[in-house]
């Protein structure tokens, strides 16, 4: 849970993540996409050469084996794609669904009628309406994720050992040759602590929440947080745990016409049994239907120019990250500032829906948040030793400071979200709005209050070990993901993302992992060549 959020009526929010082999790739919504070219170019502008969009394209493709749809499905379901934008030899299978909910056929036309074109989203520009790609194996319609595709095929390798139900306590930091150096890891398993020594280096991939926590527990961070918790400071790294950025979400619910086909039968034992039988027999049916109706919209499709200029005038921050996001708060730029998704099911618990009726959900998600928070360790209760099993303080500070722009953007965006449900042909499937309730005659919905009362996390936090090639006073890791101030220690996960992107994170995190692995292998090979008295090859 987060800390109570001041601007959200002091509500604490759930901060979910994958706690399984494979992490969040084992539990997410199967969304496979990438952001806009300017999103990644902004990373490079922070002193991180090699992290611009064009440089990342090989790593976007490397994890993927893309399976093209049949010509019939391509036409019937409006599946826009360019095979050249995808990989064809990677571990992760991606494909389009071959079965959709009862309103899918209306989605593209409805958005087209609102002035939004249907477009492919993988070429560095993701605005428009499109049918989402999934990380699913099309042969058996099973999830294709890191544990099934990267680990299991290689589980028998003698130099690979994976231990589940183990908790890392800290990275061991020692002074070697006058430099702070990561020499190993202490972890707990079955109630016993163990120490593992690192022959080459330590790689931390605990995610946006726990990577900064483990750095702080290891003595790497801001003394203002480490000292009160009783942690010896090895490296004063002020940005550890800072720069937390998270996409945020609103949910609208609509009653559907009873004739609309959805996954309602799964709520009943017989319907679920039938669906399971069909799935295990033919790999088809309701259990293969996923939310795939996406639209990413620029501000000029959602609000007028004067309001965008008003929002820009409210931004007071002058740091590089804030200015990067402000540059995207531009009426004349075609970027996916807001994401909209529709699904003819209740995908999020809101309101008090009638169990005998059908409902559809409209999601709105803000892509470029100004709200910036932090994740830090805290002193344990008296008499209790500090431990990584204790939750850190998670405070996204939603809508605080320049985050007021996020709140106003979402409120204005919800007017557009509601207009989607009222536009044909989708409106033919909708009876009325359920959440928030339709306003009384002669009144209007208070969208701003709705945002304050109902905004939740979209579970895409980044930034707490932010990458910056300008040193420890600007970030936590350098462009090779090496922790500033420490030798033989890297962070390779979503926490290194310095500025949030307009995209679900999965595809980008795989690219980070592939690029990180490439750099680790390069450095390993370089050290080996030097030991033999040979020069290192130039890095590419």
What does this structure look like?
With 540 residues, the chain is α+β, with helices and mostly antiparallel strands. It has a domain at 16-150 and 248-366 and 399-454: 2-Layer Sandwich (Glucose Oxidase, domain 3). The chain is 26% helix and 19% strand. It is built from 13 helices and 22 strands. Strands 4, 14, 15, 16, 17, 20 and 21 form a seven-stranded antiparallel sheet that branches. Helix 3 (71-76) links the parallel strand 2 and strand 3. Helix 2 crosses helix 13 and helix 11 packs across helix 12 (447-454). The chain is globular. The model has no long low-confidence stretch (mean pLDDT 96).
Low-confidence stretches: none
Instruction: Give the total of beta strands.
Output: 22
Tell me the β content: 15-25%
Do you know the CATH architecture of the domain at 16-150 and 248-366 and 399-454? 2-Layer Sandwich
What's the number of helices? 13
Shape: globular
- Any idea what the CATH superfamily of the domain at 16-150 and 248-366 and 399-454 is called? Glucose Oxidase, domain 3
C-alpha termini separation: 41 Å
Strand count, sense and barrel status of the largest sheet are: 7 strands, antiparallel
CATH class descriptor name of the domain at 16-150 and 248-366 and 399-454:
Alpha Beta
| Arithmetic mean pLDDT | 96
Q: What Rg is obtained from the alpha carbons, in whole angstroms?
A: 24 Å
């Amino acid at each position: 849970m987060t800390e109570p959020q001041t601007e959200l009526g002091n509500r604490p929010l759930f901060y979910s993540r994958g706690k399984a082999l494979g992490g969040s790739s084992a539990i997410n919504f199967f969304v496979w996409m990438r952001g806009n070219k300017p999103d990644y170019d902004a990373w490079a502008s922070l002193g991180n050469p090699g992290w611009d969009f064009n440089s990342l394209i090989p790593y976007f493709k490397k994890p993927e084996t893309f399976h093209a749809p049949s010509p019939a499905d391509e036409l019937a379901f409006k599946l826009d794609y360019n095979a050249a934008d995808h990989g064809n030899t990677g571990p992760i299978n991606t494909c389009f669904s071959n079965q959709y909910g009862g309103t899918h056929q209306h989605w593209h036309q409805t958005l087209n009628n609102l002035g939004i074109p249907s477009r492919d989203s993988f070429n560095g520009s993701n605005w428009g309406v499109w049918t989402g790609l999934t990380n699913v194996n099309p042969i058996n319609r099973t999830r294709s994720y890191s544990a099934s595709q990267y680990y299991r095929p290689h589980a028998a390798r003698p130099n690979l050992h994976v231990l589940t139900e183990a908790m890392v306590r800290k990275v061991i930091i020692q002074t070697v040759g006058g430099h702070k150096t990561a020499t190993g890891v202490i972890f707990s398993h079955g109630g016993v602590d163990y120490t593992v020594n690192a022959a080459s280096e330590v790689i931390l991939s605990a995610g946006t929440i726990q990577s900064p926590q483990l750095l702080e527990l290891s003595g790497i961070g801001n003394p203002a947080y480490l000292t009160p918790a009783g942690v010896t400071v090895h490296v004063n790294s002020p940005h550890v745990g800072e720069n937390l950025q998270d996409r945020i979400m609103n949910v609208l619910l609509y009653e559907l016409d009873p004739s609309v086909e959805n996954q309602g039968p799964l709520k009943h034992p017989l319907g679920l049994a039938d669906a399971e039988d069909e799935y295990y027999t033919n790999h088809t049916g309701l259990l293969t239907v996923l939310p795939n109706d996406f639209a990413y919209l620029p501000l000029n499709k959602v609000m007028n120019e004067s309001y965008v200029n008003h929002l820009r005038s409210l931004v007071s921050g002058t740091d590089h990250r804030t200015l990067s996001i402000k540059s995207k708060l531009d009426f004349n730029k075609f970027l996916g500032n807001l994401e909209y998704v529709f699904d003819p099911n209740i995908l999020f618990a809101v309101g008090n829906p009638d169990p005998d009726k059908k409902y559809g959900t409209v999601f709105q998600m803000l892509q470029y948040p100004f709200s910036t928070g932090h994740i830090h360790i805290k002193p344990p209760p008296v008499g209790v030793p500090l431990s990584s099993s204790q939750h850190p303080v998670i405070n996204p500070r939603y809508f605080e400071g320049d985050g007021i722009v996020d709140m106003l953007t979402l409120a204005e965006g919800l007017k557009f979200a509601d207009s989607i449900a009222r536009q044909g042909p989708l409106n033919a499937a909708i009876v009325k709005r359920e959440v928030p309730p339709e306003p009384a005659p002669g009144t209007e919905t208070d969208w701003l209050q709705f945002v304050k009362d109902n905004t939740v996390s979209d579970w895409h936090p980044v930034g707490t070990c932010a990458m910056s090639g300008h040193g420890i006073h600007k970030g936590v890791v350098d462009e090779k993901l090496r922790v500033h101030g420490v030798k033989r220690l890297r962070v390779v996960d979503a926490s290194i993302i310095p500025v949030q992107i307009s995209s679900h994170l999965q595809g980008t995190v795989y690219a980070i992992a592939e690029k990180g692995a490439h750099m680790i292998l390069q450095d390993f090979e370089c050290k080996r060549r030097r030991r033999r008295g040979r020069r290192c090859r130039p890095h590419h």
